[in-house]
Amino acid sequence: MSRYVPPLEEHNFVLNQVAGLEEISKLNGYQHADPATVATILDEAGRFFAEVIEPLNRSGDEEGSRLDETGQVRTPAGFGDAYRKLVESGWPGAHAPAEWGGGGLPYVVGVVIQEMFKTANMAFSLAGMLTQGAVEAVHIHGTDEMRSLYLEKLVSGEWSGTMTLTEPEAGSDVGSLRTKAVRQDDGSYRIFGTKIFITWGDQDLTDNVIHLVLARTEGAPPGTRGISMFLVPKFILDEHGEPGERNDYKIVSLEHKLGIHASPTCVVAFGDGGEGAVGYLVGDEMEGMRNMFTMMNAARIGVGMEGLALSERAYQHALTYALERVQGRPIGAESTESVPIVEHPDVRRMLLTMKANTEAMRCLLYVAARSGDLMFHAESDDERERHSKRLALLTPIVKAWMTDLGVEMTSLGIQVHGGMGYVEETGAAQYYRDSRIAPIYEGTNGIQAMDLVLRKLPTDNGAVVTDLIAEMSAVVFELEEHDDLTRFATELAKALEGLAETSTWLGQRLSSGEIDDALAGATPYLTQFGTVLGGWLMAQSALAAKAGPSEHSPEFLAEKINTARFYGEHLLPRANGLVATITAGNDLLASATLS
Ligand SMILES: Cc1cc2nc3c(=O)[nH]c(=O)nc-3n(C[C@H](O)[C@H](O)[C@H](O)COP(=O)(O)OP(=O)(O)OC[C@H]3O[C@@H](n4cnc5c(N)ncnc54)[C@H](O)[C@@H]3O)c2cc1C
Question: What is the pTM (predicted TM-score) of this model?
Answer without folding.
Answer: 0.97
